[in-house]
Amino acid sequence: MAVYTHLGAEDMAALIATYDVGTLVSAKGIAEGVSNSNWLIETTGCDGNGARYILTMYEFRIELDDLPYFLSLLDHLAAKGCPVPRTIHDRDGALYRMIGDKAVALIEFLPGVSVSTPTAGQARAAGRELARLHRAAADFPATRANAMGIAEWQRLAQACGPDGLATIAPWLADLVASELPRFAAAWPKGLPETVIHADLFPDNVLVLGDTVTGLIDFYFACNDMAAYDVAVTHLAWCWDPADGNFRADLSRALLEGYEGVRPLSDEERAALPLLAQGAAMRFVMSRAYDWLNTPADALVIRKDPLPLARRLEYYRDHPEIFA
Amino acid sequence: MAVYTHLGAEDMAALIATYDVGTLVSAKGIAEGVSNSNWLIETTGCDGNGARYILTMYEFRIELDDLPYFLSLLDHLAAKGCPVPRTIHDRDGALYRMIGDKAVALIEFLPGVSVSTPTAGQARAAGRELARLHRAAADFPATRANAMGIAEWQRLAQACGPDGLATIAPWLADLVASELPRFAAAWPKGLPETVIHADLFPDNVLVLGDTVTGLIDFYFACNDMAAYDVAVTHLAWCWDPADGNFRADLSRALLEGYEGVRPLSDEERAALPLLAQGAAMRFVMSRAYDWLNTPADALVIRKDPLPLARRLEYYRDHPEIFA
Fold it and tell me: Which of A73, A108, A143 represents a domain boundary (last residue)?
């Protein structure tokens, strides 16, 4: 949640000059992004009327080989009318450029805000845009495996160790020990696949009122089951942020919004309880790992894995919410 | 250099509704400010054509009693044509509002970037705007003492202690011991006073090419000698960021720019060598104190006091640069 690299105004102006976007007018480092630095850039625009962009510098974690997948996916989805930011290509047509050993990309700025407490109208709109994304991405030619699949949850669990997990909460260690082994054998196969966002928490959705103006942060996007993405989004949207309780109204709105565009098959619907538990396990494990491995002086705010562990239990004990 | 307080989109929208600026379109936390949190805000604007603002939440250090001074000063200077952001008053005319126990203010957004390596043209423009500010502020009715005056340098030196300073560098402890006692008796008296910015480093000046588009961050502004502000600005602008060497060309440009608007009297010019040493001591002491007292996990990047201590030595040994 910080700008990790200092990029002086002179460097920034030189970089912007490699794009056909006019000249630099303003650049503010923004406090977003965990594994990248971001600036909100204003230029005179190609037409002199002003334009805004997000400049992202990829700092950690990202595989440079994956960058063309993420960035050309944005172009593919934007061309099909999805509310995602287009990638601005440089004057040579490149999707990204290198500054030293770090890649940078310029993407469109989209209006809208990320809500902390979604309304049913916003959950419905998010469901609708997720389904439109799944449809629009179906013919995207590139593929990328889900690097955050079951094998990765197992690796993270091993890296944390039961003792490590117990330092977060003893019941978390027990939950992981009892639940994690269930997924590998039972995980659904043969459900429809497409490109999924895989991380569509409310922070990654921009809205104005009940209108979704932007889906952002596609750096976990991959080819996987559409229904798994529904499960991730359900995990992310359908809970009261204040008391942690399940919100049936948001769940109904999200699923109705989704199915208005892309109805779920019986097989997909039947798989949702397990997929949602898996989605919860995926974020429990990545957050628990980060919790145990984030240095005290890091610029990143650690996210608590425990609320998501509670959601896993709820999904396990209440499969009827998807009926 | 971070956003210390989470302000959800819903809270932000409610806050913006208390101003006559249209409705909230976008809000991005920006990575600026050491003792406050800042957001770059976009709204539909009063006229529906869109408008941008900086929202500042005062987190630390600031005395609430001082806020009307800083914020009404912006209005005073903007009304006289200085390139400073206007304070946006709320619908009740208030300069700032409270969110819980923290004050927030909405100020105009100004275009421009802060350069890392100023050119002579930019130093000249900065000098000119500093002089215009000193002239425009002369009839500002409120007053505020300089809280970062000699008594405060002495207090900070005592708080650091010679042993503390020596952990930064042994020669720094020696320099403070030998130089600090000189100021109290020799400090100039009777030079013309006005409102001074007192912190006009290049980060606090927005430029487009050689045009100054914004003077920002007035939270050290106070009533003091105009020539002292010239000295602070000289300390901040006239050195090579790469090798630390004095840059005679920038010095000449800054002073020429200033004197084109407000010529220095003989007394002011004669005082500059000592005022510049004092300006250096002021920032050496505040940076040394912050260096020793910033927790390792702070979101703030500590600034090195040593380059400024070298500048103090240079000013002491080369009074002729102001002749």
Answer: A108
Given 3-state DSSP classes, what are the helix, strand and coil percentages for chain B, each rounded to the nearest 5? 45, 15, 35
Total number of domains constituting chain B: 2
- CB distance B30–A30 less than 8 Å? yes
Residues B301 and B209 in one domain: yes
Q: How many residues does chain B have?
A: 323
| Cα-based angle B216, B125, B205 (whole degrees, multiple of 5) | 20
With a cut of 50, say whether residue B99 has pLDDT above it. yes
Q: Are residues A194 and A302 in the same domain?
A: yes
Which among A12, A42, A116 has the least Cβ separation from residue B111?
A42
A241 in the same domain as A127: yes
Q: A297 to chain B: which residues are within 8 Å by CB?
A: 296-298
CA distance A46 to A51: 8
CA A283 to CA A276: how far, in whole Å? 11
Q: Is the pLDDT of residue B299 over 60?
A: no
Domain enclosing residue A65, as ranges: 9-108
Q: For residues A91 and A78, what is the distance between their CA atoms, to the nearest angstrom?
A: 20
A79 lies in the same domain as A125: no
Give, to the nearest 10 degrees, the angle between helix B170-186 and helix B266-293. Answer: 140
DSSP-H helix ranges across B140-245: 150-168, 170-186, 226-237
* HEC sequence for A31-99: CCCCCEEEEEEEECCCCCCCEEEEEEEECCCCCHHHHHHHHHHHHHHHHCCCCCCCEECCCCCCCCEEE
DSSP assignments along A148-163, one per residue: TSHHHHHHHHHHHHHH
Shared domain check, B168 and B31: no
Confidence band for B31, pLDDT divided at 50, 70 and 90: confident
**Contact status of A10 with chain B (Cβ, < 8 Å):** yes
**Interchain contact A14–B (C-beta under 8 A):** no
Give me the mean pLDDT over the B56-64 stretch: 78
The DSSP annotation for A204-273 comes to GEEEETTEEEEE---TT-EEEEHHHHHHHHHHHHSB-TTT--B-HHHHHHHHHHHHHHSPPPHHHHHHHH
The average confidence (pLDDT) of chain A is 94
Provide the mean pLDDT of chain B. Answer: 94
| CATH code: domain of residue A70 | 3.30.200.20
Residue A40 touches partner B, C-beta closer than 8 Å: yes
> What's residue A320's pLDDT?
96
Residue A282 lies in a domain: yes
| Contact yes or no for A73/A195 (Cβ under 8 A) | yes
Domain end marker among A56, A76, A108: A108
Write down the ipTM of this complex: 0.84
Residue range B67-80, pLDDT digits in tens: 999 999 999 999 99
Nearest-10 crossing angle of helices B306-317, B266-293: 160
Give the closest-approach CA distance of A185 to chain B in angstroms: 41
Q: Do A102 and A126 sit in the same domain of this protein? A: no
In the predicted model, residues of chain A with pLDDT beneath 70 are: 1-3, 33-34, 60-62, 295-301
